[in-house]
Amino acid sequence: MSEIIIIILMAIGGALMLLAGVGIVRMPDLFTRMHVATKSATLGVGCVMTAVAIYFGDVGVATRALLVILFFFLTAPVGAHLIGRAGYIVGTPLWHGTKWDELDNMYDHANHTLDSPASVKSRDPATQSTTTHQADGDSAGESPVD
Amino acid sequence: MMVDTNLSSAMEITVNVMLLIFVVSLFLAFFRLFRGPSLPDRVVALDLIAAIVVALFAVYSVVVDQPVFIDAAIVLALIIFLGTVAFARYTERRGRP
Question: CB neighbours of A133 closer than 8 A, spacing ≥ 6?
């Protein structure tokens, strides 16, 4: 019975890992690559580690496997955030089909401060309407986030 | 190298397929590591390679029936996180992708 659970968990983990590998090759820009690699690799490691903990059936091994899972779930988002932030600040190009760049013209590269959409709107509505994309549903001037 | 284990045949097939899948995804991540147009792309690929190797260690500990490999996985996860943080910091300081 536990063997079936192990096999299913390992299969899910392997599928997620393969998905991460395919995604990091196929995705068009840094941020989508980062998104696919971080999410599916974290969940894949979690599934495989759970399967290994069930296989050994030992409290010591289960604790160490839980430690690995906990560590991955804590550090993967932090690392992805740091790399994404560094990539955006140094000007990594976005995909040409990107619809939204909410930091566009709102990030001050000198002081590393961020304007809110409301302050930009009150300061100069003309520049904002030119910088936002003309996609449908993209009403320029309305605050994109709440 | 497959050692003689007491795994059942279903588990043995599963474990072998898992090792094959991990090697394939390692090759895909290595492709991005060599190709990646910018430095952050390569760092993301390195991060993914570390995650794949951690999972590979876990499956290999089942193959050889040695839970010691999980300790190696813990250490690898720890070191790679520090590497990612350092890469992000110095990429930001360098100021160009």
Answer: A99, A100
